[in-house]
Amino acid sequence: MATTFREALVDEVRDLYHAEKQLTKALPKLHKGATNPKLKQALDSHLGETEQQVSRLEEVLELLGERVRAKACAGMAGIIEEGSDILGEDFESAVMDAAIIAAAQRAEHYEIAAYGTAMAWAEALGLSEVAELLSQTLEEEKAADKKLSALAEEGINAAASAEGDEDEDEDIRPAKAGNGAARRASRA
Questions:
Q1: How many C-beta atoms lie closer than 10 Å to residue 153's C-beta?
Q2: Backbone angles phi, psi at 45, to 5 degrees
Q3: DSSP secondary structure string, the chain?
Q4: How far is CA 16 from CA 76, 80, 157, in A?
Q5: Dist. CA 47–CA 25, nearest whole Å
Q6: How far apart are CA 141 and CA 124, in angstroms?
Q7: Which CATH class is domain 5-157?
C-alpha cells in the first residue's frame, strides 16, 4: 500500500504497465474484427507503439529503483471487456469499425488521463527523466486518439450511418391514414 507520493507514483506506473500489457493482447483482436484497411493499419501501428510503451515503463520502473512488476489495472480490464463484447455483436462491417474506434478511444482516453497524472507527479517529485519518458508516451496516446478520430470523421462514421439507414428503410412501413398513434410511434 502506497503511503508516500513517490510510492503512489510507483503504483500508478505499475498500473499503467499492466494496462499496456493487456492492450498488447487486445489490439490484435480489434485488428482482426476491423474491416477498414486504414483502421486495421492504425491498430497494427499502435500495437507496435504499445510494445515500445511497455519497454518504456520498464525503463521508468528501473529509473525509480523498483522491480519491474505490474499492479492489476481493473480500469483497463473493464474497457477491454467492453471492447470484447463489441466484437461479439453482429454489426455490419462499417458499424463494427465505428464501434471498434469507440472502444479503442475509450482505452486511449484512459491512458491519456493516467499518463498525464503520472507525468505530473514525476515532475512534482523532481524526476525529470521519468517525467520525460512518461510525456513521450502521453504524446503518442494523444496522437493515436487523434488518428482514430480522423478515421471516424473521414468516412467510417458516414459509412456506418449509411448502413444503418439501409436497415431502417427496410423497417419503415407507411402508417394508415388517421392512425396518429401509429405515426407518432414510428417517429419515436
A1: 11
A2: -60, -40
A3: ---SHHHHHHHHHHHHHHHHHHHHHHHHHHHHH---HHHHHHHHHHHHHHHHHHHHHHHHHHHTT--------HHHHHHHHHHHHHHTS---HHHHHHHHHHHHHHHHHHHHHHHHHHHHHHHHTT-HHHHHHHHHHHHHHHHHHHHHHHHIIIIIHHHHHHHHHHHHHHH--PPPTT-HHHHHHHH-
A4: 9, 14, 30
A5: 9
A6: 22
A7: mainly alpha
The answer to whether the beta carbons of residues 172 and 186 sit under 8 Å apart is yes
Confidence of residue 163 (pLDDT cuts 50, 70, 90): confident
Whether pTM exceeds 0.90: no
Residue ranges of domains in the chain: 5-157
- CA angle, residues 131, 122, 10, in degrees to nearest 5: 110
- Cell numbers that stand for 158 in this block: 458516414
Angle value at C-alpha 2, between 67 and 65, nearest 5 degrees: 25
**Pairwise CA distance, residues 184 & 188, whole Å:** 6
What percent of the chain has pLDDT above 70? 86
